[in-house]
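R.M. (postdoc): so does anyone remember the format we settled on? I'll just put the structure tokens first.
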């Protein structure tokens, strides 16, 4: 490997790239990372972390209201968007520094330039410098998809939403996935009139139907509007700065902000991958084998750019497996079965394993246990919002093949429950577990 400048050259310092680089360096590799923006990637800079902080901030709207039933008097409470925004961005800066420090502590060289692939063992930096490496790892992530309609440049994406000068009075959110529903809940709690537009008639495709239906019901009760089977015709800016949105199957809508949350596309444009012989898929995703190797023997890819499962913990696992395989002499693959996930909507959804529909299609005979209840806190607060838990079992041996929940703290509860599903435990194992009372989580072991 001494014939090359580096043993590993990583393009992109997101979650997958940082993990792969530092672990490879710990295995003794000479590593460099090229990052054109900031260390930390989508999750830390413009995704999971700042969004979750906004979710926390949004929860105070209902918590302050509910607190009256618990004896608290909170007068003259005023929400300051700029204070929250600036505090969130300051936390992003702190995490960016910690990620840089992690790489530097492992003696990984950080190159603050865009890099493109110019050969099986060569990359070219933005300033024209060429670097060679025994192995190249592409971790460039994904970017928001923007619908191609007249006036689309007047909208924003999840990249820009954290930098707004003020909370829009009226916001139209395009999409029906987790990003769209999370921001719908956030802005609704901040006082915006929220409308969600989607070209189909379903929310959160891939999640259990009962959870999707319950979220739609609760969101509607909270005042969020929905326009289904609608596609953009165009966006026009009015003289007062507001936006007029025209769409199919519905009347025009006047809003102050349009947020596009219609999925994410792999960041492979202009990277030189195809010229280097790397095979790409229909969406531009990098095709890889089970060890994250591309069609070029010396080039690998992990994370959202491969469009396997676009989740930060998955990218981290892929980065770890890559480094252990290539530089740790320990061939490792990632198990993509039974990956838990969450939607930080209001209330949040969490799930692991098969949905009821998937289980019936795959297993035939299934047993479904449900608990539909009103959390204790909601009862005293006078809030009618109900939670729903569902356990799906193989009909033969009652092995649990899926758990799905919509409830306060559902993602926190699901992390432990996912271990049980991954381990292949049965409904009898849950039944034999003593409940922790009074909790919402106890419903998982009380279903009959």
């Amino acid at each position: 490997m001494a014939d090359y400048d580096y043993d590993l050259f990583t393009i992109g310092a997101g979650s997958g790239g940082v993990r792969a680089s530092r672990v490879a360096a710990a295995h003794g590799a000479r590593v460099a990372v090229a990052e054109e923006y900031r260390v930390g990637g989508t999750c830390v800079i413009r995704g999971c972390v700042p969004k979750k902080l906004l979710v926390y901030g949004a929860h105070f709207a209902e918590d302050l209201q509910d607190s009256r039933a618990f004896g608290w008097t909170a007068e003259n409470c005023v929400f300051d968007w700029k204070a929250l925004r600036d505090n969130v961005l300051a936390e992003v800066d702190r995490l960016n520094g910690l990620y840089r420090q992690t790489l530097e502590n492992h003696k990984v060289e950080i190159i603050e330039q865009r890099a493109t692939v110019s050969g099986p063992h060569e990359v070219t930096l933005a300033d024209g410098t060429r670097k060679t490496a025994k192995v190249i790892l592409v971790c460039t992530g994904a970017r928001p998809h923007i619908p191609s309609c007249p006036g689309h440049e007047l909208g924003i994406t999840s990249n820009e939403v954290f930098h707004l000068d003020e909370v829009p009075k009226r916001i139209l959110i395009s999409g029906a996935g987790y990003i769209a529903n999370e921001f719908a809940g956030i802005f609704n709690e901040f006082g915006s009139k929220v409308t969600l537009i989607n070209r189909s008639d379903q929310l959160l495709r891939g999640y259990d139907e009962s959870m999707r239906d319950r979220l739609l019901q609760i969101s509607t009760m909270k005042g969020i509007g929905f326009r289904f089977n609608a596609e953009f015709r165009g966006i026009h800016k009015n003289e007062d700065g507001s936006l007029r949105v025209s769409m199919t199957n519905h009347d025009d809508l006047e809003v102050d902000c349009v947020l596009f949350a219609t999925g994410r596309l792999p960041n492979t444009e202009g990277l030189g991958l195809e010229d280097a012989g790397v095979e790409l898929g229909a969406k531009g995703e990098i095709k890889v084998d089970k060890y994250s190797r591309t069609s070029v023997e010396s080039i690998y890819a992990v994370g959202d750019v491969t469009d396997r499962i676009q989740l930060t913990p998955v990218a981290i696992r892929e980065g770890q497996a890559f480094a252990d395989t290539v530089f740790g002499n320990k061939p490792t693959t990632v198990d993509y079965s039974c990956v838990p996930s969450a939607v930080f909507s209001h209330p949040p959804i969490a799930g692991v394993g098969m949905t009821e529909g998937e289980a019936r299609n795959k297993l035939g005979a299934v047993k479904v246990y449900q608990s539909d209840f009103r959390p204790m806190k909601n009862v005293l607060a006078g809030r009618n919002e109900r939670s729903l838990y569902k356990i799906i079992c193989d009909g033969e041996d009652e092995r649990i093949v899926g758990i799905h929940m919509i409830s306060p703290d559902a993602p926190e509860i699901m992390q432990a429950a996912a271990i049980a599903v991954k381990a292949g435990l049965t409904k009898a194992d849950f039944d034999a577990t003593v409940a922790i009372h009074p909790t919402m989580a106890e419903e998982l072991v009380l279903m009959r």
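R.M.: ...and that's the designed sequence above, right after the tokens. Also worth knowing: Residues 195 and 225 are 4 Å apart (CA to CA). The chain has eleven helices and 22 strands.
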